[in-house]
Hints:
α2 (71-77) packs across α7 (202-218) and α13 (379-388) packs across α16. Strands 5-12-13-14-15-16-17-18 form an 8-stranded parallel beta sheet. A 7-stranded mixed beta sheet has the order 3-2-1-4-19-20-21, with helices on one face. It is globular. By secondary structure, the chain is of the alpha/beta class. It has helices at residues 40-47, 71-77, 89-102, 127-131, 153-158, 188-194, 202-218, 235-248, 264-273, 322-334, 346-359, 363-368, 379-388, 398-409, 412-416, 421-427, 444-453, 473-479, 482-487, and strands spanning 6-17, 20-30, 33-39, 52-62, 64-69, 81-82, 109-114, 139-143, 148-151, 171-175, 181-187, 221-226, 254-260, 284-292, 339-343, 370-373, 391-394, 430-433, 505-508, 525-530, 533-534. It has 3 domains: 6-63 and 499-534, Roll (Urease, subunit C, domain 1), CATH 2.30.40; 108-194, Diaminopimelate Epimerase, Chain A, domain 1 (Roll); 202-487, Metal-dependent hydrolases (TIM Barrel), CATH 3.20.20. It binds zinc ion. The site of zinc ion has 4 residues, from loops.
Amino acid sequence: MTPEARRVYYNCTVREKKGTWWEDGALALENGRVVACGEREEIISRYGDWPGRDLKDRTLLSGFNDAHLHFYQLGTDLTALDLSQVSSRQELREKIEVEIESKHQAEVIMGIRLNDSRFPEERLPERAFLDSFSTEKPIILRRICYHAAAVNSQALELAGIEKDTADPEGGKIGRYPDGRPNGLLFDSAVELVLDELPEPGISDLAATLELAGKHLLEQGITSVGIDDLRAVRRAEDMLAAYQNYLNKTEARPRLYLQQRIKNTADLEKLTKISRPTGEGNEDLRYGPVKIMLDGSLGARTAALSTSYLDDPGNRGELLLNADNLRELLKRSYRQGFIPAIHAIGDRAIKTALEAIKKSAQNKKMLKQSQIIHCQLTRPGLINELGREQIWAVVQPVFIKSDRQMVKKRLDQELQQNSFAWQSLSRAGMRLAFSSDAPIEPVNPLYGIEAALSRQDWQGRPEQGFLPQEKLKLDHALELYTEAGSRLSGEARFKGSLSPGQLADFIVLEEDPRQLKAANLSKLKIQETFLAGSRVV
Ligand SMILES: [Zn+2]
């Protein structure tokens, strides 16, 4: 992948940056960077003697920046049993039987993306059901949100989970009325089982990263915020796998590393094996410490200030109490690590905001702080968040999957003020878009479509959910391109196609402005370029 030293792309529509589109445009590149972007005539008059390529009326955009996804998990999921389309016990039975038959040498049967809200009974299957397939091999079916899993008796035994096993910190073991575990595991309890599974070596990890990276480039993603340090037992193994991947693979998205920690011991270790927020280079930038504060709406573990309507008495759970969170943030800021806190429910978001305000050492650190998801909010909370101008890394595509749950599970005020990206943005929060893949499909065009239409996968409701929160296309594109590079502190050299920027861009078959929102996700990403070299 040697960058073409000089090249002019012409006869195309170019989105240079927010609000600046060139209809009959051209882009001049030299040594992997943009030299000029503008009207074709103007560019050709200055760079007409450089080698050129006619793009035949297609459209150029900056490469997408997905600000938060699980890179390694995405790679493993590309080869695991996908249960996302299953909507009954019978269908589940057939899928598992085929998997066991076709992978009879596998030591573990791993299913992913199981979505029990599609089942008539809206409950995950308990261990007795899974034991009917095998009592010798562990079977683990992870819920679509990854915050819960259904496992068989062999998996429980492997993890030593018995009647008198206490719930782990930040997790819950599902039980029958007599106290025996029923095979359902929530949040950190899932890890009790995962931690006992055989683990791949560093070069296997790197091979999985390579699969994920290739998949992202095909979707036009040239920069990505990744959260996988804890996907293996030892964070240093994953760091080594990233290095191995960077050294071996030339065509890969630029990585922004979110560094997951649970407690101060993890933080201390991180200071020895990794580097603080903002260090690194164009290939790999060390990002924030990522801290989980609650679960998900799907698993009814997002921490709300009121009960779930369909589960009275349950308000979800904070995975760290306010004092512990504050202490962890104080130490993080002191060591140069900005926090990125996973908070979905309004109670978790409020707790995160308070802790950030009380711990940040200065205004700059405060404004760099991030809340990942920031999903279920109330009017007062939206104003408080906006006032501090902190970041929200949000997932527009969640609307497509979560809308029905919002109606069934949340009180009126939460329903009316959730996924409120327009309100959050007007209030002063800084937003960046992401997919949270593999929880949702990685294609950024799904997210952009969802931000514009605010409809679910079936196109409902017709006017969109909270239509006042709809975004305009150019704004949605900004949140999937420029915003991510601001979030990682790299806007001076990537995120747009203005002169001086890295030539990371994609070629679309049509101008997205000419399409109805519902058709955006059908748009083909035909080519992807990194620093001026074509990689897809
Ligand atoms: Zn995530």
